[in-house]
Automatic annotation (TrEMBL):
GO molecular function: 2 iron, 2 sulfur cluster binding; FAD binding; iron ion binding; xanthine dehydrogenase activity
Superkingdom field: Bacteria
Signal peptide coordinates: none
Protein name: Xanthine dehydrogenase small subunit
Record Pfam families: CO_deh_flav_C, FAD_binding_5, Fer2, Fer2_2
Length: 482
């Protein structure tokens, strides 16, 4: 059985289909049809809902953290121990919520289909903001698309909603909701079981290892932003899933003198502060990783584990010399991330083995990262590049150059690195290294970019890296897009 709050109503579910998304649960099982399906792939934001969960802030005070999610990519099992809020829950005692009222007064709704998603993103923004902030408003709304193109009034609504925000019913009931969430906090492995399909929800790494050993055919579910597409887009059935999002050990970020250790189930939005502090380019790239809804769900371990050749984090992690800790039963092994990827969607992971954490070295001051995509926000890379050199008196003593989108896997540019190591860091060396990239990669052409464009972009990004290191005041870095 799993338990969660539907606004303030306790829901206990056991026999639901584990392949059921939160979107369809709301619309088909509880009659809340305000949440809309626009794309069923996490691109449009029409299905945005907000999930609240217990969280301790920096001062150690327990509070509810509200986050926007795409309900079309969220399986119901991931709600275990949390609170689900949909657009119907905002109106209270016959009065519109302040974010809804702002949309009305600023004329932010046109055809109306996307409006519930915008409202829920604005609600999460309001809950996480102390004052109007244009940058945060853009970030909060980047994952919501309006085909009527009414963004200016929606941004005005965001400013109004976050300015002198009034107390709402969620604020007044906060203590009660915290008590309810504590009462339903999971204490043992939960389960959804519809007879032919099941999803298990362990609470510890030990339990996960035991369950995965017992069900090696199971699919591991973290954020689900990739896995859920098999159900929503390809109409496949997932007979057995194991949800790892309730394992606190796998959601920790620990900082040591020489490294960061990031649990594989850590949401990308939670990785931002630590990675940005060590590597500003990594943090900046995370801001361009899909949308805020996706970053609130998707995990660093999942972005590695799905072995996509266009995943944004693997090239950066490879260039930094990151390692992963793989767990199987009681056995653990540490593997260089670059050795994890074997071929297209093929990895070195063994049966019943899972990524427990990622180890990111510190201290690489010349690390830079770049993403080229067709639009700035909420888009997949055509080319993602990461460069990490060590210079001794103008001579390159170490070089790690990695790319995504250039091969069947995220991959180091070995020929390019060979040209660089031992050479003087100058324009002539850079041109030789650019030529060597043609030996490292024979990229494919697809709807994102042609092979010629990809290769030229990769070469130009290396040139860009050289120029920026020579003149650090001109840094456009990860903002590059087609």
């Amino acid at each position: 059985m799993i338990q969660f709050l539907l606004n303030q109503e306790l829901r206990s579910e056991h026999a639901l289909d584990p392949n059921l998304t939160v979107l369809n649960y709301l619309r088909e099982h509880v009659g809340k049809s305000g949440t809309k399906e626009g794309c069923a792939s996490g691109d449009c934001g029409a299905c945005t809902v907000v999930v609240g969960e217990l969280h301790r802030n920096d001062q150690g005070v327990e509070q509810i953290r509200y986050r926007s999610l795409n309900s079309c990519l969220t399986f119901v099992s991931s709600l275990h121990g949390k609170q689900l809020i949909s657009v119907e829950d905002l109106k209270h005692q016959g009065q519109l919520h302040s974010v809804q009222q702002a949309m009305v007064e600023c004329h932010g709704s046109q055809c109306g289909f996307c409006t519930p998603g915008f409202v829920m993103s604005l609600f999460a923004l309001q809950k996480n903001s102390d004052a109007p902030d244009t940058q945060k408003a853009h970030e909060a709304l980047a994952g919501n698309l309006c085909r009527c193109t009414g963004y200016r009034p929606i941004l005005a609504a965001a400013e109004q909603a976050c300015c002198n925000k009034p107390q709402d019913q969620f604020d007044s009931r906060e203590a009660q909701t915290i008590a309810q969430l504590k009462a339903i906090a999971p204490t043992q492995t939960g389960e959804l079981n519809s007879g032919d399909k099941r999803c298990l929800v362990p609470l510890t790494v030990v339990d996960l290892a035991d369950l995965y050993d017992a069900y090696p055919q199971a699919r591991l579910l973290a954020g689900g932003t990739d896995l859920a597409l098999e159900v929503t887009q390809f109409h496949r059935t997932l007979p057995v899933m194991i949800y790892v999002g309730n394992i606190e050990e796998m959601k920790r970020i620990e900082s040591f003198d020489d490294r960061l250790e990031i649990g594989a189930a850590t949401a990308l939005s939670d990785c931002y502060t630590a990675l940005h502090h060590e590597y500003p380019d990594f943090g900046d790239l995370l801001h361009r990783f899909a949308s805020l809804q996706i970053r609130n769900q998707g995990t660093l371990g999942g972005n590695i584990g799905n072995a996509s050749p266009i995943g944004d984090s693997p090239p950066l992690l490879i260039a930094l010399g990151a390692q992963i800790v793989l767990c199987k039963g009681q056995t653990r092994r540490t593997l260089a991330l670059e050795d994890y990827f074997i071929d297209y969607r093929v990895t070195a992971r063994q049966d019943s083995e899972f990524i427990e954490k990622i180890i990111v070295p510190k201290g690489h001051s010349l690390f830079r990262a770049y993403k080229v995509s067709k639009r700035l926000d909420d888009d997949i890379s055509a080319v993602c590049a990461a460069f990490n050199l060590k210079l001794d008196n103008g001579v390159i003593s170490e070089a790690r150059v990695a790319f995504g989108g250039m091969a069947a896997t995220p991959k180091r540019a070995r020929h390019c690195e060979t040209v660089l190591v031992g050479a003087t860091w100058n324009a002539a060396t850079v041109e030789k290294a650019c030529a060597a990239l043609a030996e490292d990669f024979t990229p494919l052409s697809d709807f994102r970019a042609s092979k010629e464009y990809r290769l030229l972009s990769a070469q130009n990004l290396l040139r860009k890296y050289f120029i920026e290191l020579q003149t650090p005041h001109i840094e456009t870095r990860v903002t590059a897009y087609v």
